[in-house]
What does this fold into?
Amino acid sequence: MDLSLTIGDRKFDPGIWLSSGIIGMGLEFQELINFQYVGAIVTKSISLHPKPGNPPPRLAETTGGLLNSIGLANPGLAEFTGSIISEITQLNIPIIVNVVGDEIEEYLEVSRELDKIDQIAGLEINISCPNVSKGGLSFQKDLTSLKKLLWLIRTKVDKILVLKLNASLNNFIDVAKLAENIGFNAVSMVNTYPGMRFDIETRNYALGNKTGGLSGPAIKPMALWAVYQLSSCINIPIVGGGGIVNWEDAVEFYLAGARGINIGTALFSEPNTPEMIVKGLVGYLKHNNLNSVSEITVNC
It folds into this structure.
């Protein structure tokens, strides 16, 4: 049974990625996850300089989901390329590095340096974080600056490039089309949706940054809608995610038009989610006399 995902000249088998921001650099979960059921790890975001992130508390549970306000905390490019990448490669799994920046020049410098590292399979350019005051969603909102950013990265980077989109902005289809026209190889979506909670005992904000990004099963219907809307508008692969906790959820994303899937918040409660999804997909394909996840399409 073929569960693979092909992006550019790279094949990921299975086409199941672990989303950026959930498992750090991957090392933190190496004793919990059977990585033979994972096609790639998307690292925690990497910026040029270290970022402390947002003030605590950074996580707040909600009904059917999780709010986070990490704020792109990360060790910075030098530490990542100096020691962390060599440790991650010992997991023997393709590595996609999530790249962030406050300015175009920062994105470009980080991307060019990472492009030199053979152990890295590709870059995920993150223009969709809702929890920072600079960079993040500001680039997705400004198509003129975004066009310049994506074009510069594409002209300087040889590795496969994936654009991380936020579907909470209504221009995500235009942004994806722009990325495809410039030469990006795939789109990853959805990121989290803006949200907040209050502590009714203290009458204060549940998150130190007041607002955060909502993930988990609560956002799955919206994520499916976004993937479905985009799938008929672009030809490059969509790596879809948002609330996937089991193989049935994964099948829905394939039906919506995704060619691969992202798993995130589910790993907090069930680290074996990738294995369960792979085994469930294989069973689903056999039961329906299908040979590949690419054959999971809507009957109409």
